[in-house]
Amino acid sequence: MLLLVLAVGLIVYHVYKSIKPPPPIPLPENVSEICPRVKLNDGRYLAYRELGFPKDKAKNKIIIIHGYGSSKLVDLKITQEMIEEFEIYFLLFDRAGYGESDAHPSRTIKTDTYDIEELADKLQIGPKFHVLGMSLGAYPVYGCLKYIPHRLSGATLVVPLLNFWWSHMPENLLSAALKKLPIQNQWTFRVAHYLPWLLYWWLTQKWFSPFSPNPRETMTERDIELADKHTKHSYIKESALRQGEYVSTQRDIIASFENWEFDPTELLNPFSDGNEGSVHMWCALEDKQILREALLYICDKLPWIKLHQVPEAGHLIIHEKQHFDDIIKTACS
Predict the structure, then answer these.
(1) Pairing status of strand 37-39 against strand 45-52
(2) What letter does residue 243 receive in the DSSP assignment?
(3) Most buried residue, 80, 138, 183, 208, by CB count within 10 Å?
(4) pTM of the model
């Protein structure tokens, strides 16, 4: 009987160890000497990077929100010519748990949104700013449109993620969007939605791959070329994930696919009362990850979002210089 109890205890302990996420890997004590950081009201620090015009003189102030597995070091085609022509101040930052930004113990779309607002206030960039998010990193843009619309001078969503459990979009459309992805990815996102406490185990077990191992199932040939270019500097990815994958990429997946307090089709136009500003959504017509029809549905329900459909472009559209130029010019117009 004693052996049975011990065996059960060992099994329970092993299961607990396998599903319990690890704490963040500690940052170096001199991290604030490595890069600038600001202390938030809850005691956490956010790391950031500023580019372009001085913020007190800039005509356009754009906060760029990096995507999945990236950071404030995301390699975008920002040129001095672009900065000077449109008088742009760019603010890039590590979202909570990425790079040198402290992790949030229960990160959500709402906490990410208020991190952006507090960062802007701590850096005194002004009462209004434009937010630009790409791919999975576009979900905080939806949060800004919902929770802090009064702070926005504009918003841009570039190939934005779709939460397959939004409550006010047609189920058949969201089902088609999910089925566009490889079966491994589909099940990973289902686990994140229905069993988020199991996601760490799901992504770290060795029995099967939680994502498709074939990049051509989710990327075009051009996407693969761009991905190779932008991952050749391994230190960028290592820096982004230096605190561990659970507090960065895995928390991203949970925040993206958990139940939100709102559906994008319920958003109100933040510029309906004569306030200057606009919202733009960019759809790449060769995108293998985002269902075009779902983005069309959102823009049909919210006609104040200006949809830009780009032919012969894939999911990594923002890393193409010409397309990035177009995105920024449109945001500044």
Answers:
(1) antiparallel
(2) T
(3) 138
(4) 0.92
